[in-house]
Amino acid sequence: MKKSIITIAAAVCMAAVLTACGGSQTKTETTAAAGTETTTAGTETTAAGTETTATEAAGGKLVMVTNAEFPPYEFRENNEIVGIDADIARAIAEKLGMELEIQDMAFDSLIPAIQSGKADFAAAGMTVNEDRKKNVDFTDTYAEAAQVIIVKEDGDIVSPDDLTGKKIGVQTGTTGDIYADDIENGDIQRFNKGMEAVMSLTQGKVDAVIIDREPAKVFIKENAGLKILDEAFTEEEYAIAIKKDNWELVNKFNSAIKELKESGELQKIVDKYITAE
Ligand code: GLN
User: Fold this and answer.
1) CA proximity to 230, closest of 160, 129, 164, 166
2) pTM score, two decimals?
3) Which of 132, 191, 272, 273 is the most exposed place for a label (fewest CB within 10 A)?
């Protein structure tokens, strides 16, 4: 009985290969191919979907990885991953006519996930730097950023120079972690989440935290008695990381980012999450 239902279903599928069944078949193929070769996925979808519109024809699924512990760029709200990067990624996927899946993981797992082909890209407030460029390609930048220093309001650290010999909290694998390494006699304490580093500062277990400016602002609002030093530790820029040598995808993303900048949509997304003081 079961077997004949499957046979009928298969026959219907074959007859209607360009309609409903064909569609779902394409989706499965696209999903499987998304991690490895997006170019191929896009082409297959176009070939199968003769009746689809131009946007749908671009088709396929993009797998994004991020670390949703980084407000206002990515965080969880009602169990959904939201934030500036998530909204930008959704807007890009929409422009490319592609589905978007977001996966949450540790920050230092993001680049390996792209390299192994588990993900197509990372949007994670990721700073462009030369070392990372050896392992991934970056899109055009979409935000100015900085590493800042959070200290106790009544502490004796007033400038980056005072960090010598201090206990410094950072998030593992971030640029804050990398730069903290250069501090003379610095005792670096690494945490999986930026918020954990900040909590350890409130508990007096570290003397300062080096972290990105916008998350720093969010974290000090949530923890009384802390402040951000006026002088930033570094100035940097964020971009989306894509698997090496997938220039086709980098170009598509860059066009989408350009459109989002020019239309003002990017600024709108930023304004939704960062309110002017
Ligand atoms: N901008 C920092 C970096 O790229 C931190 C990013 C993050 O923690 N999500 O290393």
Assistant:
1) 160
2) 0.79
3) 272
